[in-house]
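Propose amino acids for all 157 sites.
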């Protein structure tokens, strides 16, 4: 696998669109990222170390909540392998339906240092504006993990 290979992007907007292989890769990615000390919030599963069986129900819940009008899963792959992913959701309240929220940005440790997280953040901005009609994106990051500087470099505050 060449280090210079740029990620390719795809979206999952309906639960039935995700293959069993991608589902397995999402579970494996979240498990590895959590166990490597990643700043992903373990919603619904115990603190690290975790097993795939701990993460699978949470991934299933995320997939079940996909809807083109409410939320999408953005995947980054390199040579067919899942390199990273995130969720973008539209706020359901009609007064702020032009807002989106980013959750669960993850880069598989095998692909760290190759710009996958940065590429996902740039791609999600285009997707949110052009395909979802969003005017604002919001995210929250756990403090003290170094993420503040990552997001700041990308123009987030």
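Proposal:
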């Amino acid at each position: 696998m060449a280090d210079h290979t740029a990620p390719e992007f795809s979206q999952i907007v309906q639960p039935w669109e995700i293959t069993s292989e991608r589902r397995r890769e999402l579970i494996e990615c979240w498990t590895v990222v959590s166990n490597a000390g990643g700043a992903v919030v373990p919603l619904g599963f115990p603190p690290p170390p975790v097993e795939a069986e701990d993460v699978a129900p949470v991934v299933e819940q995320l997939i079940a909540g996909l809807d083109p009008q409410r939320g999408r899963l953005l995947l980054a792959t390199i040579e067919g392998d899942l390199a990273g992913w995130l969720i973008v959701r539209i706020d359901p309240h009609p007064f702020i339906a032009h807002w989106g929220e980013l959750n669960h940005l993850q880069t598989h440790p095998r692909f760290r240092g190759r710009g996958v997280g940065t590429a996902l953040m740039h791609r999600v901005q285009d997707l949110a504006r052009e395909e979802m009609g969003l005017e604002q994106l919001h995210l929250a990051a756990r403090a003290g993990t170094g993420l503040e500087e990552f997001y700041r470099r990308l123009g987030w505050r």
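The beta strands are 8-12, 71-78, 81-90, 99-107, 136-139. The mean pLDDT is 90.
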